[in-house]
Amino acid sequence: MVKVTFIEADGTRREVDAPEGEPLMYAARDAGVAGIVAECGGSAMCATCHCYVIEAAPGTLPEPRADEADTVEFMANEPRENSRLTCQITVTPALDGAVFEVATGR
User: Fold this and answer.
1) How high is the pLDDT of residue 104?
2) Global model pTM greater than 0.90
3) Domain 2-102: what homologous superfamily?
């Protein structure tokens, strides 16, 4: 298991065990992280798993694909340069210790 931290809207920090090879969204949803709704089930269409990457080792995350970037741009609440959809991040050992802030709203 890979340990990642999610910061919820109220500031609560939740350390989550994420299984390698699965989308990060599943680990957040299964752990009950507030604000991770996952309406589209991981198809990068709804932005209800939108987070900001607060801390991750350089080169840990691949660049967003075009469909993810489009969804963030048009659907996400307050898109930023560090915005990602957790459904599009596959858990790898390199993510151990990464920190994500849940974006609020839609």
Assistant:
1) 78
2) yes
3) Beta-grasp domain (3.10.20.30)
